[in-house]
Amino acid sequence: MSLGKKIGIIAIAALAALILLFIYLPVVAWILVGLVVLIIAVVLLVPIGADIAYIDEKFRLALRVDGFAIQLLPKKEKKDEEKKEEEKPKKEKEKKEPEEKKPEEEKKPRKFNFTKEELLELAKKAIKGLGKFGKFTVRKFMLHFTAAGQDPYNTVMFYNYVNGALCILAPICRKHLDVKDDVDVWTNVDFTTDKIQLDTELSVTLRLIQVVRAALAVAVGVIGVLIKNKRRLKKEEKLAKKNGEPPPDEEKQDEQTTDTEIEITKEEERKDSNG
User: How many Cβ atoms from other residues are within 10 Å of residue 43's Cβ?
Assistant: First the structure.
């Protein structure tokens, strides 16, 4: 039994149990519904976020859930004993002879055939959906930048360009983001070295309900575009059948086969001439 069927059976059983509770024990049923709604509301309001840092040429990434940090990168090194235990089963697997795999039937991948207008509409729907995120909360932002280079003039110009960009981006970030007071930004110039130095750290948080809202908005928009695309392709197939022409996908396949046949004939002619 597949996972989808199991989930469906469990959902039907839970719904049937809830209906029976409403019939025979309505007070208990309402209490259970209230608890479920309360749990969902609490989970959606839990703050989640990420801590991203690049300090001393090392990248660090951590997931933050309600104040608890889970380190993702760099991964913690395993102890020597754990490494040895993992190496043992690998060696045993290498000793076993590989079993002959039966040739699987090639599955044709589903191809999407979008027009430029549909792709543009798809991008617009995705951007509009992402706009439903709302404001991010920037708990911490640190940027230490030191411009350097062989040419002093280019170094100073690059330093001025970075400062100008920061002056432009700062009010935009203040407007669209909820920036806390923990902000540390400074820039400098070093003419004694050719290596640019950059240390940065960013800590962002948002509510889970923001993610769900944005995901639903993106999904609704994208599904609408996909439905339109499917209807258009069906219309094109019907028109092609009426006119006695092959559908667009078959035409592309025929072109590919003719190209391969031409290449094969050319190779055979070369072999005959060399032979």
Answer: 11
